[in-house]
Amino acid sequence: MQDWEREIDDLIEIELKPSGITDDAVLAAMRRVKRHKFIPETLRDRAYGNYPLPIGESQTISQPYIVGLMTQALEIRKTDRVLEIGTGSGYQAAILAELSEIVYSIERLDTLSSRARTNLYSQGYDNIYLIVGDGTLGLPEYAPFDKIIVTAASPKATDILLSQLKQGGKMVVPVGNRSIQDLKLIEKALNGRIYRKSLGGCRFVPLIGKEGWRD
Ligand code: SAH
Description:
Layout: H1 4-16, H2 24-32, E1 53-56, E2 59-61, H3 64-74, E3 81-85, H4 91-99, E4 102-107, H5 110-122, E5 128-132, E6 145-150, H6 159-163, E7 165-176, E8 181-188, E9 194-202
Parallel strand pairs: 3-4, 3-6, 4-5, 6-7
Antiparallel strand pairs: 1-2, 7-8, 8-9
Helix pairs in contact: 2-4
The structure holds S-adenosyl-L-homocysteine.
C-alpha cells in the first residue's frame, strides 16, 4: 500500500514550492484532491510524479506544476463562477471546485466526460457541472464567468471566450502551435481593457473544434 499523503507532501515541497507554487489555498486544494483517483489503475504508482500521464483516448492529465501554476494565476475566490475547457480526467475541475462557487467544465469526448462524471460524483463533488461539446465556443447561456481556464493547446486566445469573461475577470490559456505553447494570463480590467502576460512555455494536447484545430 502506497503512502499517498507522503507522496503529495514530497511533490509539494520538492517540486511545486521551489518552482513558485506557493499560494496556501492552492496547495491545500492540491493536497485534498487525490491525483491518483483520476489516473488509470495501472499508472497509479506514478500519480505524484511531476509530469502528465495518459488518461485514455490519446489525452492526458496535466502535470501537477502546470495545474498549480494555472490555478494560482487565476486567484480564485469562493464566490467565483469558473469555466473550464477540457475536462479530461476531471482532476483540474476538482481543484477548481475546492476553491470556487461553481465550475462548468466542457469536454468534447463523451467517454472522458462520463468517466469524470462518475468519478467526481462518487467523490461527493456537487458544484461541478459537466457539459459535452465544443468548448471553443464557450458556454454563452451561463456567461459571464469570473475565471476561464483552457486546458488544451489553442491556436489563439479567441474573442468568443474573452467575450464570456466578466470585467475584472481572468483567463489562462496555452497559445501556440500543436506541439508547443506559451501559457498566457489574460486579465479583463473593470474598464474592459485587456492585459496579457506570459507565464512560460508548456505542452498541451490540441484543442479540437471550431476555433481550434481540425480532428
Ligand atoms: N484538465 C484535464 C486535462 C485536459 S487534457 C485534467 O485535469 O485531466 C485536454 C482535454 O481537452 C482532452 O480531454 C480533450 O479531449 C479536450 N478537448 C480538446 N478539444 C476540446 C474542445 N474543443 N472542447 C472541449 N474539450 C476539448
